[in-house]
Amino acid sequence: MIKRHKTAKQLFSYPPYWAECYGVSPFLPTSREEMDTLGWDSCDVIIVTGDAYVDHPSFGMAVMGRLLEAQGYRVGIIDQPDWRNAEDFKRLGRPNLYFGVTAGNMDSLINRYTADLKVRNDDAYTPYGAGGKRPDRAVIVYSQRCKEAFQDVPVMIGGIEASLRRIAQYDYWSNEVRRSVLIDSTADILLYGNAERAIIDVTHELAMGKTMKELTNIRGTTIIRDTPPGGFTEIDSTRVDWPGKVEKIYSPYEYIPEGKCQTKDEKDSDVMPIRVIPAPLRRGEKLDPDKTYIRIPSFEKVSKDPVLYAHTSRILHLESNPHNARALIQKHGKKEIWVNPPPIPLETPEMDGVFDLPYARVPHPKYQKARIPAYDMIKTSINIMRGCFGGCTFCSITEHEGRVIQSRSHESILNEIEDIKAKVPGFTGHISDLGGPTSNMYTLNCKDDEIQASCRKLSCVYPTICSNLNTDHSPTTQLYRKTRAVEGIHTVSIASGLRYDLAVEDPEYVRELVTHHVGGLLKIAPEHSEKDTLSKMMKPGMGTYDRFKRMFDKYSKEAGKKQHLIPYFIAAHPGSSDEDMMNLALWLKTNDFKPDQVQTFYPSPMSLATAMYHSGKNPLKPVTYKSEDVYTPKDHKQRTVQKGFLRYHDPSNWKDLRNTLIQMGRPDLIGDSGNKLVPSADKDIQVPRRPQKTKPGQAIGASHTSNRPTIAKNTATEKARRKKHKSNVTTVTAGRSSPEPSRTTKRRKPKARTR
Length: 755
Hints:
Helix content: 25-40%
Shape: globular
Structural class: alpha/beta
InterPro entries: Elp3/MiaA/NifB-like_rSAM, Methylthiotransferase_CS, rSAM, rSAM_horseshoe, rSAM_sf, UPF0313, UPF0313_C, UPF0313_N
Region (Disordered): 667-755
Number of domains: 4
Largest sheet: 11 strands, mixed
Low-confidence stretches: 246-271, 693-755
Organism: Marinomonas transparens
Domain Radical SAM core: 374-643
Keywords: 4Fe-4S, Iron, Iron-sulfur, Metal-binding, S-adenosyl-L-methionine
Distance between the termini: 55 Å
């Protein structure tokens, strides 16, 4: 009988490695000198990361490093190495077991480029916020350099950059489908998601003498195979155009690996027959998920056929529940990418154990007083949970952390507050956040383990909240009260995104939040106002927003506070037409919202919205060549116009918006009355250029690059000319511009941002 709800070995129950005798390091070493101080002759594991090393549970390298240290291993850190050659990858010597490579807390390309593919000048995970300290596609570059430094040392890749590229994926930056990063990086194994279980399993197996090639069935890992494993049932899902009727196959196909001939005496399990079932027939079969895999279209097919890409994306997301997911296999040339099922989520005691590790909670001392912006943001914040069952199609949290919520205990969270008080320099008593991927999914899970084990829904809250979902926020409310009561704590803010469709199900939680934890402004994310676009996002309608706003205003008034909601919206999302954006702009104007910072859809690898963007199909439903088409604004002009609708109040957008409204047949929205979206053309403001200083010896008005000598003038004549020039200086006023503004005209100061 198949066990419905899977369990895993307890995270801290493994016998420790012999090197535990070295004890706990103040910081994981980043140089040979630090290793010598600790008495180490070598590292068992070396983690290479694109982030500066901050010993804090919000930084992936610190979590993995401290976890392995707790298992008895000596772990070193190579942070932000010079990738231009292999020398910096040798700084800690040869690791005894493997290199662990991560791009850092952010995808290196999203970190480096905006949604409009402009280069960012800063990097929040680098000292002083300096940009350019990590390469593009850092996982690939770092992994190859590790192999160059020590060819015989295995390389493990992980973190969000590797996790979202475990199979063939659409790459926005090159506008093509790329191979699995496991192949391009030349690494030996890929760990995806929150990888505590996988990294412990892999490390202990290697320490016991196994090789990477022998580690084929560890959950949460992706490997390269030459052939599929024997003894499995293959569900063939490589096509979407099956015939109308598929006859049952009574004699199963037999798969014989290339180069091998199976005989009667052959006992190798790898050449056992593989039963192949076409996808349309799988529903009638009761198959053991542990002995079943799904063959998805090959890299060669999805790279040429966007419809098959959307189909593959749908399969991947349907196989994300760790309690019923099957392995996936995808051919890349002559190799097979094998994706084992997701890891079993951590139980509360295991989560507590991970966050209770002896983090220093500060950057490595070698940075001295250098400011690391990302650390400044999170140094007094606390992560209380992981995962998200919202299923927003544009978000990568689900693909990385999964849909099952993993929560810490109140005791562990309160202990972390004491840790912050003791270790964070200059702590003033303000906890900046209690949250995670969302602020209010803490302890919320399916009411029934058996139902959860069989569920394949992409979201627990769309189109409506599932009746099997626990929506009781009382554990969160109680946690808030306990944290406020801690001695020395005067403020506890909630900065993580709020899922307001869940919050309205528990008015007491909303009251607690609004009364004590909102500092005047609360950020929420309706993302859009129009039903068609929201359906492609898997987000609730504006009716839910209105319901939450009424509760927010009511409880703010009861608390005697003047507080406001700050809604976030996305432009140019798949499914969003210019008419949708126009209606959203009208909604914003009606509600007197003038967004300052706005977001344009950013196609991140592996998300469902990215599949829509690339394929023009909707993977939220079964995909065929005749299934629903999804319009997506792609070129720069389209995306700029849609972004302009969100900033309808910005004069720099008025010209484009007027042209678009005329093309849409909506010139009635152009004009000067209150119900118009943009003013008429004569209201445009001509902003003068910033005044520039002249170089010594340069005439007024001459080019800064001009080397022509000035002509000496009569002093009295020059004074008269300057007096006349000064009298002609005019200032720019709203609704009217000077015909010839002077270079000395002062620019108006921009309005203060609302966020």
